[in-house]
Amino acid sequence: MNPSNDTPTEDSTEPASPSPGRNLPIAIGVGVGLGAVVVFALLWQSIIFFGLGSVALALACWEVSTAMNRAGRRVPIWPVTACGPFIAAMAWFGGGTGLALGTALAVAGILVWRLAEGASRYRTDVASSVQTLIQVPFLAGFILLLATSGENGPLQVLILLLMVVLSDTGGYTAGVLVGNHPMTPSISPKKSWEGLGGSVLAAALGGGLACHFIFEFPFYLGLAFGASVALAATLGDLAISVLKRDLNIKDMSHLIPGHGGLMDRLDSIVMAAPVGYLWFAYLLG
For the segment 248-267, what is each residue's pLDDT rounded down to a tens digit? Predict the structure, then answer.
């Protein structure tokens, strides 16, 4: 789920070597299938959602760590990968305190683990490892906090994901139809200011309607909620684009047919997660 403001061609980073464009029918089919699994897990048994989330975070940590190592950064792949489900479990069973404590323990563990390889490039390698832990399981942990925040927790997660989908759809549509002014040409050349406007507009309208009719909040608060999620989702997309450009890769991996890597789909969601969590804490608190 990428809040893309792009034209139908690929955005993001330029690959080290030419690669074919995505197969759109396969990408849509896989995306719909994954979305259906997530909705089913949330509405049927939330503990299944926790299991799926733990596996997803392990895979995302693995592919980001692997990509960094291929670029010459010595990130301990398997310890960082194990930290994904560990932080997820701490968030699921320990709430906000568990998320903070789990992340702190994971960072401390990686610092100690990396000592065994000596002082050479210690600072840069540790920084890359900590970046992975913060950018992937810590931010994603707010989705788990939402899911366990009460009777309406799963519904809050679904609304947040819907806002990201609307941001993606609105940004893509506006980018294709009227996107003429590049927003960040040095990071993601195909993204446009018009696409960003489409993302914010679509998510704001969706947020206004969802929050008003489901939770009976004032329409303007729902507008602000949706717009905030769209901006955060776009920032998350750009953050991963910067990382991929720095690593000189097109996709984080080829794990998902038609989509690339898992983080290529989660980039917008993980950045939107804490924003959504804070908004629901405010609106429902």
Answer: 888 887 877 656 778 888 88
DSSP symbols for 109-153: HHHHHHHTT-STTHHHHHHHHHHHHIIIIIHHHHHHHHHTSSTTH
Name all contacts of 96-100 with Cβ < 8 Å and 24+ positions apart.
96/145, 99/138, 99/141, 99/142, 99/144, 99/145
Distances (CA, A) of 284 to 40, 224, 228, 231, 234: 24, 15, 17, 22, 25
C-alpha 266 chain-centroid distance: 3
d(CA 118, CA 74): 11
What is the pTM for the complete model shown?
0.85
* Rounded CA separation 83/54 (Å): 10
The whole-angstrom separation of Cα 19 and Cα 35 is 27
Name the residue with tokens 């980039």: 267
CA 117-120-126 angle, 5° bins: 70
Query: What stretch of H or E contains 246?
Result: helix 219-247
Tokens of 29: 């089919």
- Can you read off the two tokens belonging to residue 277? 């969590």
Instruction: Let me know how long the chain is.
Output: 285
Which residues have a Cβ under 8 Å from the Cβ of 15 and sit 6 or more positions away? 248, 249, 250
State the sign of the Cα–Cα–Cα–Cα dihedral 26, 31, 32, 33: positive
Percent residues over pLDDT 90 in the chain: 54
DSSP state, 20?
Answer: P
Q: Report the 3 state secondary structure along 159-206.
A: HHHHHHHHHHHHHHHHHHHHCCCEEECCCEEEEEHHHHHHHHHHHHHH
Residue 101 to residue 89: CA distance in whole angstroms:
11
* 197-206: average pLDDT: 96
